[in-house]
């Protein structure tokens, strides 16, 4: 007999991917629990973009509406963190939480996202998500035609600067740790992207706004927005602990429906794809929910047949 801790599916993470999986599964009349601590990656951002009918909506409002919809179909929301995930003999999983509660589930969706490792440059972390940002597609339009700066913290910063040229004719790449080749400099110059060599000492903030970037051996270069390509680290410890396969790129591998190499374990959103935006993660959650319910139906059929023949 099922108890209050037994579920068809436990969803770990209540971002767009996790909530959309939970929504589809709850509408399929599955017993669903969603575990989340209410600290989404995009919390510093005031608005999200690129999501048809939700463009410009605040991330917090979007998630609040999503939670209400999921709960409205009978899912359980639990404010906690899953510390441990274990597969047990005979199929299924246990999810142990930091509140001491342990849940049992036939299947699990991991939607724990990633963390952004930012460069240790004064001013960057304080303005993160406001006028120190990452995604051109999330923020480029709002900062169009302004003085944009790109911090050269990774090789991808060069293509980032080239991409941002789509939104503004005034783009400066601060080389920082990059060793630019002659070809890099030529392609940047061809599109009018200025390069400032040397390490960056500080992103200057005054009157609650970015004012520019100071090279270690130079004067302030006025900028109103600074773009950074952070190092993106998946929060995938739960997945790797239960044995999910990891690809050559260091990220857990899944099929198109979010199935990992471990039967019954699914993963969606930024925990498996650093490029997934909100709308992408929601679609991944929908695909996973569809596949999970199908797999559970197959289990239900097998159990019914076994019961009839025993």
TrEMBL record:
Catalysed reactions listed for this entry: [thioredoxin]-dithiol + NADP(+) = [thioredoxin]-disulfide + NADPH + H(+)
A Gene Ontology molecular function term of the record: thioredoxin-disulfide reductase (NADPH) activity
Record keywords: Flavoprotein, Oxidoreductase
Ranges where the FAD/NAD(P)-binding domain occurs: 7-282
InterPro entries: FAD/NAD-bd_sf, FAD/NAD-binding_dom, Ferredoxin-NADP_redctase_2
Keyword Ribonucleoprotein included in the entry's annotation: no
Record-linked PANTHER family: THIOREDOXIN REDUCTASE 1-RELATED-RELATED
Designated name of the protein: Thioredoxin reductase
Organism: Saccharothrix ecbatanensis
